Amino acid sequence: MIDLPQLVARFHDHLDFATREGVFEPTAFSLATVSPDGRPSVRIVLLKAADDRGFVFYTNTRSRKGREIAASGRAAMVFWWGPIFRQVRIEGPVTPVSAEEADAYFASRNRGSQVGAWASNQSAVLPDRETLLAAAKDVETRFGAGPVPRPPHWSGYRVAPEVMEFWYGREDRLHERVQYTLEKNGWVERILAP
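Below the sequence we write its predicted structure tokens.
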């Protein structure tokens, strides 16, 4: 019987293969969320960690995705590595990472990205690009040459998998799909038609 550590290890095997094969931005994935009235939304974000606790990404918590996660508590992810004909799908509940994890990751970002996290009211309508650039300049002035702390509205989320699917591209569109679903007695494997 398979368990979550084995599934995460299989995911890392795929990610490592994509990296070795030179896939552009192999940690990029599509993140799908849904609004309280059922409107789906999807965007590309970058994976920052993956272990037995789940799959982690970081963002402005006041962004559309942040608001939708707060409302539903769930998300879906898709990693698509076209050049190697592989895909991994993940679905599950979402929880915030700890403040310590968020602080540590934020501190590892380059200064420009740190400034941008303060300057951008992500997903809000801007009158023009100059407004964003002026906000970034104000942040730079505010913090000077000192460290840029993590904004209170910026953190990470962890998707705890309840469904994982591994897709392998095959000839004649007879693709291989292996789905694992977390049920009462553990993970159940199913082969799905392409």
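The mean pLDDT is 96.
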